[in-house]
Design brief:
The structure is a homotrimer. Helix content of chain A is 38%, strand content 14%. By secondary structure, chain A is α/β, with parallel strands linked by helices. Chain A folds into 2 domains: 137 residues, Aspartate/ornithine carbamoyltransferase (Rossmann fold); 166 residues, Aspartate/ornithine carbamoyltransferase (Rossmann fold). Chain A is globular, with a radius of gyration of 20 Å. Chain A starts with 18 loop residues before the first helix and ends in a 7-residue tail after the last helix. At the B-C interface, helix 2 and helix 13 of B face strand 2 and helix 3 of C.
Chain lengths: 331, 331, 331
């Protein structure tokens, strides 16, 4: 496996990832995806290593995915839950991180409601000379790199199941629909998709996306357009990525109602007729049925890649932990 | 091991279980019971497999028992906890189940406060063509098959520690005392005990058991009687199964007071004199001391099988997961 | 390894521990400390054994440390969490313990807000003839032996990294500063430090330490003094152990304010000038920064042993579980 070029201890944002790095991840994830189809879906790669999940913002789905990825690699896992923690006792986040460092943690998977917390922990660990990697599992509105990487893997694998690679995305039209400006998932996907040469089209009400926002992600490889209607984004699209709508957006007057949102930006079977015939729908989950997607679309396994994304998530997270751990042979 | 006749992917209710199936479970559980007496109480049977505990209704005791059974079989375990979950984010129960399916779950252990949820999940998984088994760990007032099966194992093993089998129950008088009509444990036990030919006697106040209720469980093999007093049920009984009294029954006026309940239906040493000399007391736990049982009875290891039930629980749940997993050799 | 002299099934208090026993623990912990520096930081010592963490009083830090120690020894672990437990259903603590005993628990790690609960569980298990050890992970104001033992290991290892032993503590001046009278950590440390011959100096406001309190811990080996000012305790001290200040002490009028406490008893770089040049600071964590310690002192790795204590914690807890399990060869 071509891990010789892998030089990152931390995975905090995809902002400066290269196509070569994306290809290493896709290739490594593909080999773990194969491991997960065996009867014994486990490799001894990280046996005796310790991965600590520090989810300051609770998330059953993402924590389960990381916990499972760690177990499939035979690592030991500690789950830090803030509810019952010392944080309520006046300890700082860095003190908590240093405590788990002192216990022998090899990698920390960090989710926090505030942007920048994983980066701050990574800086502190580096300052202390610790050889410990930090994986950002979602920080505020900033980034959610493992989600964007599993999305990338899902798309690439959709175009070539046997050899998922970045080249497959070149020129593909990918629509991203929904609450873009408040989405760390969208931000991370914008870095990866444009770097891989995709033709990305954002569609949302003006309160949820703006041209200056999109300009920040401009890249030489791909292209990026902003639409305030759904239709131009869907036209001839290969992939439609929908985003979860946070219901609190309504109370802050950014949206009139969920019903109205669905009428204008919800993905239905009728609207899919605008896309390429082989187009597929994605969503990071959990889906608000009847808001971002009609139930009919979501439950149609010929159209929806939502379950595939979940499956990809385990393989991609195994790949990330493996690469961060400086891994050699997979199985 | 005679698992050739085992054809069930799911265990949802005991309604249509045959004596042959009960015997396979008893025999398999006996061999795991032996494994649990070794110094290394573990077998590699389900290594690399994934069991997800989905306890929508919280339960430390039953979840611990299933978690331990899975670990003793060397499976990986994910615990889904509804409190911190996506359900609060608008995801349906089936979406949650499909997410864990997509992560690679091999078996789901499901508890829910509403009757029918495990069945609904099982139907959906079958519809999707998933080769994934669902084990009902208690749904509403409907069923709690693993509890009834561990009760069956406890009774059969009591009569013959070396070869627990259904034939041992034929003609034995088994009293079931307490809040029968609201008990999923009682319902599941009624299917198994009558199918094994036991002579079952129900005892409860008229608000907590009725003749039409009992008629629903009539069987050719065993016999079933209803009493509104305790004494006729205890007379010459071999086994007395007590049920947990939910304190909310009082507020709905089904019971006058816990004190009065204990005076009429509580099991005390005096009342046990009515039973067979070798009679034993059971309870699914946790016990309300001084209500269903006097502390004196509960703590007398010569009379009480309550701890044995807990021990049986791990062995029986190992057997169920093993059989659902299509297992071959045990150790 | 010299475990021939180890005869304790339970570790509940250090009150009657001998220097020989402390030396066995230090020596065993040192060998596990070495295991924890290997690439695969795991030994198969307790494979197939079951350790149940029963934390009636929640604690992420201590529970994580015990959970990790158990996993490093390859044991299976069950975590009992009171929030979702049967205790709210009327079950007694002893019933809970007996349930986990019946599931096959080999060792119970018990924390409870009331003094004496681990002892009560241990008595009950002994009465039942169970061969199950109880480790007190903190009970009320009474004791926290594993914390004191990891403190002892940290100190001994500081004086001789290669061969930590009790003899190294003879005549060393150790200051204990803070809320001594309400601290189970201080109580346990007083037993161990005086038994090892240290010269212990307590410093606290008169509301938080008294001479009669100290007299209870008088020993032939070490010496013990009480000061109501910080300075005489710090003068020429080799080690300064600080204790966590519970903020509720202020509401009960035992302290004027955190600010005033820090002015009189907080450890700052200036005050450390009174100590030996090589003096080190300890704290059981979590630290109230700017109260017990200035951030400057706490974050100075040349002065603070706080992180070392956390690392020692895993090794010492492995040693305790190993010794209680009647272990033979370590690796």
């Amino acid at each position: 496996m071509a891990t010789t070029e892998w030089n990152r201890r931390h995975i905090l944002s995809l902002e400066d990832f290269t196509a070569a790095e994306y290809d290493i991840i896709l290739q490594t994830a593909a080999s773990f995806r194969e491991v997960l189809t065996r009867r014994t879906r486990k490799v001894p790669t990280l046996q005796g290593r310790l991965i600590t999940n520090m989810f300051f913002e609770p998330s059953t789905r993402t924590r389960s995915s990381f916990e499972l990825a760690a177990k499939r690699l035979s690592a030991d896992v500690l789950n830090f839950a803030p509810g019952t923690s010392s944080l309520t006792k006046g300890e700082t986040i860095l003190d908590t991180a240093k405590t788990y460092l002192a216990m022998g943690t090899d990698m920390m998977v960090v989710r926090h409601q505030q942007s920048g917390v994983p980066q701050t922990i990574a800086w502190e660990l580096d300052r202390l000379g610790a050889q410990v990697g930090v994986l950002n599992a979602g920080d505020g509105l900033h980034a959610h790199p493992s989600q964007a990487l599993l999305d990338l893997f899902t798309i690439a694998q959709h175009f070539d199941p046997d050899a998922p690679r970045t080249a497959l995305l070149a020129g593909k039209k990918i629509a991203i629909v929904g609450d873009i400006v408040h989405s760390r998932v969208a931000r991370s996907n914008l870095w990866s998709l444009t770097a891989c040469g995709a033709d990305v089209h954002l569609a949302a009400p003006p309160t949820l996306v703006s041209k200056p926002f999109a300009d920040a992600f401009a890249s030489e490889s791909g292209s990026l357009s902003v639409h305030w209607q759904l239709e131009p984004a869907l036209e001839n699209a290969d992939i439609v990525m929908t985003l979860r709508l946070q219901k609190e957006r309504m109370s802050s007057n950014l949206l009139p109602s969920l019903r109205e949102y669905h009428q204008q930006f919800g993905i239905t079977r009728d609207r899919l007729a605008l896309c390429q015939p082989h187009a597929r729908i994605m969503h990071p989950g959990p889906v608000n049925r009847g808001v971002e997607l009609s139930s009919e679309v979501m439950d149609d396994a010929r159209i929806s890649l939502v379950q595939t994304q979940v499956t990809s998530g385990v393989a991609v997270r195994m790949a990330l932990l493996y690469l961060m751990g400086g891994g050699k042979s997979v199985a």
